[in-house]
Design a protein that fits this description.
This protein has two helices and two strands.
Length: 71
């Protein structure tokens, strides 16, 4: 077992915390290599969000988990 194989099978958890409009969504979009989270000069992601890898792109709300919106 190599380190690369171990990392490939591991789910990383990263917490990003900060004041409004300090670039949290921007840094997460950069890490993902795609603009999935909204960015702007006004607060855009006002609640806790969780991003996970999936074969299909969709959004699911914790308030209504059975409802999925395709991206």
């Amino acid at each position: 077992l190599t380190i690369a194989n171990w990392i490939n099978g591991y789910k990383f958890k990263v917490a990003i915390l900060g004041e409004f409009t300090t670039g949290k969504s921007t840094i997460l979009n950069a890490l993902m290599g795609e603009e999935l989270l909204p960015i702007g000069f006004l607060p855009t992601t006002k609640q806790l969000i969780k991003v996970e890898h999936s074969e299909k792109e969709y959004v699911r709300s914790k308030k209504n988990p059975e409802m999925e919106l395709s991206l």
